[in-house]
From TrEMBL:
<feature type="region of interest" description="Disordered">
    <location>
        <begin position="1"/>
        <end position="33"/>
    </location>
</feature>
<dbReference type="GO" id="GO:0016491">
    <property type="term" value="F:oxidoreductase activity"/>
</dbReference>
<dbReference type="InterPro" id="IPR020843">
    <property type="entry name" value="ER"/>
</dbReference>
<feature type="domain" description="Enoyl reductase (ER)">
    <location>
        <begin position="10"/>
        <end position="332"/>
    </location>
</feature>
<dbReference type="Pfam" id="PF00107">
    <property type="entry name" value="ADH_zinc_N"/>
</dbReference>
<dbReference type="InterPro" id="IPR013149">
    <property type="entry name" value="ADH-like_C"/>
</dbReference>
<dbReference type="InterPro" id="IPR011032">
    <property type="entry name" value="GroES-like_sf"/>
</dbReference>
<protein>
    <submittedName>
        <fullName>NADPH:quinone reductase-like Zn-dependent oxidoreductase</fullName>
    </submittedName>
</protein>
<dbReference type="InterPro" id="IPR013154">
    <property type="entry name" value="ADH-like_N"/>
</dbReference>
<dbReference type="InterPro" id="IPR036291">
    <property type="entry name" value="NAD(P)-bd_dom_sf"/>
</dbReference>
<dbReference type="InterPro" id="IPR052585">
    <property type="entry name" value="Lipid_raft_assoc_Zn_ADH"/>
</dbReference>
<dbReference type="Pfam" id="PF08240">
    <property type="entry name" value="ADH_N"/>
</dbReference>
Length: 334
């Protein structure tokens, strides 16, 4: 593969999934077509997460077609802006963002300026790249839960989204109960008041007993229906994903979406939090959330995961292995 540093603005490198079940392969290709609406961004860092690897298996509901480029979020530098733009952005500025339909694992991307948020000077780009998708998901999941006080259960509190959710909930004054296996217990324990192991068949009973009847809200990415037992009738469950066995995650997500929608006014109520949809439909709120998240990370109020740097050369192997340790996030660095 050609070094990304060889790029001119006449072409770009993109990691494309040409065959489901295989890691994306690097392709040298023409630049995205210039248009009057989009900015051109030279991507320096882009996170690699489970949604990328699931999509590359062909097992993701918001599935881009074969040949797609993974990567929901990015940090980069503005190379060009549309001739008419109302934003305060400038060429050369360091920015970050989340894409509504993936595509960040490329050296240059064409992006609506309304998706871009400046990265604070005090934040290095690799660390900043761990923030957008995962922390924005946690932010809007808590927003959908709409709890001002009480207790919240965060499933996978040592995971990429869960660790942000646990920290943000604590910041909001909620008492955080988390689930974690022994693998991520130590990391999750930093952000939670109490932890149970989701492998324990009695973990839901333990939560009900510890909270005298159940938590006020839960953030879940497994789609488990039994988790509803751990939540008070007056509370809510927010689903960020629906689990499913490998090869069946698309269908699990489709039926999970339907079930959650039907339980919207049940007791406990259910909500779905999908950042691709939020980014597409609530753009100003998304920018505001990401701006505040960056500021909180810069001030040391939120602890980001350690970026585990992946070079373009190591990308395919890292993507296939997909083993970030708890507290780490893989970041493609160009
Ligand atoms: N809605 C959105 O917009 C959005 C955005 C980003 C991601 N997602 C989705 O959210 C899910 C999580 O993503 P992530 O990046 O946080 O993944 P991750 O970093 O791999 O974390 C997943 C966590 O789930 C835990 N876990 C595994 N099996 C579990 C079970 N049966 N019950 C409870 N917890 C379990 C793991 O705990 P251990 O390590 O202890 O095993 C791990 O901490 C994925 O499905 C992803 O596609 C959705």
């Amino acid at each position: 593969m050609t070094s990304p540093r060889d790029n001119t603005l006449s072409d770009r490198d993109a990691m494309r999934v040409t065959q489901f079940g295989h890691p994306p392969t690097p392709v040298r290709e023409p630049m995205p077509k210039r248009n009057d609406r989009n900015a051109l961004i030279r991507v320096t860092h882009a996170s690699i997460g489970v949604t990328d690897t699931g999509a590359a298996q062909g097992d993701y509901l918001l599935q881009p077609v074969r040949g797609f480029v993974p990567g929901y979020d990015f940090v980069g530098v503005i190379e060009q802006l549309p001739s008419v733009t109302q934003s305060q952005l400038r060429v050369g500025q360091r920015i970050a963002g989340v894409l509504p339909r993936m595509g960040a694992h490329a050296s240059v991307i064409s992006v609506a300026p309304s998706l871009l948020v400046p990265v604070p000077d005090s934040l290095d780009s690799a660390t900043a790249a761990t923030v957008p998708l995962d922390a924005v998901t946690a932010w809007f999941a808590l927003d959908a839960l709409a709890l001002t006080r009480g207790t919240v259960l965060v499933q996978g509190a040592g995971g990429a989204v869960g660790s942000w959710a646990a920290q943000l909930a604590t910041e909001q004054g909620l008492t955080v109960y988390g689930t974690a296996s022994s693998r991520s217990r130590a990391y999750a324990g930093q952000f939670t008041t109490s932890l149970v192991d989701y492998h324990d068949p009695n973990w839901i009973t333990q939560i009900i007993e510890a909270t005298n009847g159940g938590v006020d809200g839960a953030i879940d990415h497994t789609g488990s229906s039994s988790i509803r037992r751990a939540v008070r009738q007056t509370g809510g469950v927010v689903r960020t994903a629906f689990g499913g066995a490998p090869g069946h995650q698309r269908s699990a997500t489709a039926s999970g979406f339907l079930t959650s929608a039907l339980l919207r006014y049940a007791r406990p109520r259910e909500r779905i939090c999908s950042v691709p949809i939020i980014v597409a439909t609530r753009r100003a709120e998304y920018r505001d959330a990401l701006t505040k998240l960056f500021a909180a990370v810069s001030r040391g109020e939120l602890v980001p995961p350690r970026p585990r740097i992946v070079s373009p050369t190591d990308y395919a192997q890292a993507f296939a292995a997909n083993i970030a340790n708890p507290g780490e996030k893989m970041v493609l660095e160009r």
